[in-house]
Amino acid sequence: MINLENVNKNFDDFKALDNLSMSVAKGSIYGLVGVNGAGKTTVIKHLAGIFKSDAGVIAVDGENVYDNDKVKSRMGYVSDDLYFFPQYNLKMLARFYRNMYVNWNTARFNELVELMGLDQKRRVGRFSKGMQKQAALALALSATPEVLLLDEPIDGLDPIVRSRIFKWIIEDVADRQMTVLISSHNLKEMDGICDTVGIIKDGKMLLESDLDELKTKMSESGAFEHSPPSLDEIFIHLYENHGKEVAENV
């Protein structure tokens, strides 16, 4: 479904992505993890068609993403650095999205907004950060995308709202095989929702693995006192050991 091959990206003298390759299967919930500056947001912005790579292939269902409106119309994207048109309220944004996405679902949007307790007539610029994140998620989910890209989607959200959002995402994956790529610092949340993880470091892919298989491998390695280890524990261990053990065995 999603395929990146040997992608490179430089910003002046900084190498943000270094020959990075990754693959996300259709209907998968893929967790992209790494420390700040590892390249997670850069990967997602390439997939969203915001950045153009210096080299390599970035494709969804075999089609290049950059400058491809047809592919982008099948994607939902929630950025970590949210931006809304200053004078727009939620109702106006819904109308804007309806004109962009052929599978826009007005009934679902109204339901999500009501459950989140958001005022459709209030300018989104006056929402709190948490409310703005909820608004962005409601818009993205109501676009009924085939691919959902989420960059730090739960920042600023209370536990009840987080639980609801993940429930909606899981239902969409189960009902219509939506493909999800999530970048987050909250590895405990990722541990409970993702089936596949990619660990990125210094713009390089340290490893990709089915999460259950990775936990099994790490348990068998004897690196942990208990079994199975959490994604949090695995992540710290791999960063400290540069992924050498798992790269040889997974």
Q: Can you walk me through this structure?
A:
With 250 residues, this protein is an alpha/beta fold. It has one domain (2-74, 146-249): Rossmann fold (3-Layer(aba) Sandwich), CATH 3.40.50.300. 40% of the residues lie in helices and 24% in strands. It has 10 helices and 10 strands. It has helices spanning 40-47, 69-72, 90-100, 106-116, 129-142, 159-176, 187-193, 211-220, 231-241, 244-249; strands at 2-11, 14-24, 29-33, 55-60, 63-64, 75-78, 147-151, 179-183, 196-201, 204-210. The strands form 2 sheets. The chain has a 6-stranded mixed beta sheet, sandwiched between helices. Strands 2-1-4-5 form a 4-stranded antiparallel beta sheet, with helices on one face. Helix 6 links the parallel strand 7 (147-151) and strand 8. Helix 4 (106-116) runs antiparallel to helix 5. The radius of gyration is 18 Å and the shape is globular.
